[in-house]
Amino acid sequence: MTQPNRNGLTRLRSACGTLCAVLLLSGCGVFAPSLIPRGSLAEPDDYNQLIPGTSTRADALDLMGSPTTRGAFDDNVWIYISMATHMVPMDFPAVSKQQVVVLRFDNAGKLTSLRTLSRKDGMDVAMINKITPTPGTKINVMQQILGNVGRYNPMQNMMGSGSGGGMMGGYNNNMQGPGHFGSGNSL
Q: What is the torsion angle, in degrees rounded to the nearest 10, for the CA atoms of residue 137, residue 138, residue 144 and residue 149?
């Protein structure tokens, strides 16, 4: 009689083991980072059709769309920036893939050069932990607490109409239109 009970327990254990294995393997896809595209989606199939010397700005617009940015001092430099990021728990998003395409045009609008840059061409810039000095006086905690004594005036909002009177209270009652504390337009 112990044989059927043991056989059922073995089947239960194997079923639970199989279920756990399936759940663990299916969870791997759930926790994998999903790529988030950002910027202009500059594909090699698109910009490889541009030929320096023969392609024009109109060709670049047709193939790649408008640029992400243009040169700061030269309007003939078009820059397409694209990247793919993924979320990192408890941190900023990490960059998985980054590409920059730089197009240079002459004054007539013909493409003179095409350059692609990857993440390897970039430079990491570190943050500096220094404090920027600002002019002014340094005040301590007591000066901060006592600095507002006497500035609160409970009668201030009673001088004008409405809750938007502010500092000028009832002195702006002749203003009309939106943006003047809800006075509105009158016909």
A: -30
Q: What is the pLDDT of residues 126-135, one digit of tens each?
A: 888 888 877 7
* pLDDT < 70 stretches in the chain: 1-6, 23-33, 157-187
- The number of residues making up the chain comes to 187
Structure tokens given for 145: 């607490």
pLDDT digits (tens, 9 = 90+) for 64-76: 888 999 988 989 9
- pTM for this structure? 0.52
> Tokens 């001088």, residue?
159
Per-residue exposure over 35-60, b if at least 16 CB sit within 10 Å of its own CB, e if not: eeeeebebeeebbeebeeeebebebb
* Token pair listed for 3: 């044989």
